[in-house]
Write a structure and sequence with these properties.
eight-stranded mixed beta sheet; elongated
Length: 361
């Protein structure tokens, strides 16, 4: 025993040498070589994960991940409410309240519940049936408003006036749109119409450089935005640009001043092109929830909003507000954003959004 302890201590003291010799010293070679097929197995299994990587980082996967907080808030409440329970009047009333608190709005929540009442009243339903049925009802509301922003080359340039409250992501939305259409071969122009915010001007200039877009900057901080827009559109027509994206201020603390500024921009650019602006895109921050509904009302009073872009769907549990907007206003939802990268702003797809909101593939 003492001799074995001695050799044991001796081997412990020379650990670096015995370790590599251990496999050779071990007589049962099959035992030591058995792990060899296992190290070879991972290379064989590596391709499948690599093949799956694009799916995991694809648009639907990013959309679903961005909506995950909204999904958790919505599905946990709904599933716990209806779990192993008949859809009677009481359950449907509670379902409506749950949907309202998930930012789907009163009108949309009532419409969804009525759909349940007609088709599933008095039935026991499984969790997956609830999610799938809700996704179908939500998609029905969203499908009429899922319309891409169509740029018409014959207008040359197609003028998009981008409006919204400061902080909603107007400037980055312009940048992402510019890159999207530049990749389609269109000649793009950016107009830094939020002239009082130096950061907005600088940010747009950086993006113009990245997308090879023509950049129109104010002559000085606080310069007249309408005059800048007039000059930009005149130059864009002469130079044959296809798309002109016009940034604007979003200072709602003085609503009357902002309203006048936006109306002035529209009046002035109509002197160059009577049909301009061809699109008025309102950018909304999804994290504001029901406040986004109020912003649509305010901006519709100021200008003829023709479509919406909903950003920052990755930031909160308020993604259901898109459903409320669709039901209440019926305005086209051109695109949604789930992140800061250019590819994180994509055309709005009703079914994908509805299933992503309910956590379904």
């Amino acid at each position: 025993m003492a001799l074995r302890d001695f050799f044991g201590r001796l081997r412990g003291g020379n650990a670096p040498q015995p370790v590599p010799e251990q496999p050779q010293a071990a007589a049962p070679a099959p035992v030591q070589e058995a792990p060899l097929p296992e190290p070879e197995a991972p290379p064989v299994e590596t391709p499948p994960p690599e093949a799956e990587a694009p799916a995991k980082t694809g648009w639907f996967a990013r959309l679903k991940a961005g909506l995950s907080r909204s999904t958790a808030k919505l599905t946990e409440s709904v599933v716990s409410l209806l779990h192993k329970r008949r859809l009677d009047d009481e359950a449907l009333e509670e379902l409506e309240e749950t949907l309202i608190t998930a930012d789907l709005g009163v009108a949309a929540s009532r419409r969804i519940v009525e759909g349940f009442r007609r088709t599933r009243f008095g039935k026991e339903v499984t969790d997956e049936e609830v999610k799938a049925a809700l996704a179908d009802e939500i998609a029905t509301i969203l499908e009429p408003v899922a319309q891409p922003l169509e740029v018409i080359p014959a207008r040359a340039p197609h003028v998009v006036l981008v409006v919204g409250v400061n902080g909603t992501g107007k400037t980055t939305t312009i940048a992402k749109l510019g890159r999207h259409y530049a990749e389609q071969g269109l000649k793009i122009g950016f107009v830094a119409g939020d002239t009082f915010r130096a950061a907005a001007v600088e940010q747009l200039q950086v993006w113009a450089g990245r997308t090879s877009a023509r950049f129109f900057a104010p002559s000085k901080p606080g310069a007249d935005a309408a005059g800048l827009a007039f000059d930009a559109l005149s130059t864009a027509r002469a130079d044959g640009l296809d798309l002109l994206l016009v940034d604007t201020a979003g200072r709602l603390h003085n609503k009357s001043a902002l309203m006048e500024e936006l109306r002035k921009i529209i009046r002035v650019i109509k002197r160059v092109d009577e049909a301009a602006p061809h699109s008025v895109l309102l950018v909304l921050d999804a994290t504001t929830g029901q406040n986004a509904v109020q912003q649509v009302k305010v901006f519709k009073e100021m200008v003829d909003v023709t479509g919406l872009a909903v950003t920052k769907l990755d930031g909160s549990a308020k993604g259901g507000v898109v459903v409320a907007l669709a039901q209440e206003f019926g305005l086209p939802v051109h695109m949604v954003g789930v992140g800061e990268k250019a590819e994180d702003l994509r055309p709005f797809a009703a079914r994908d959004f509805a299933r992503g909101l309910m956590g379904l593939d």
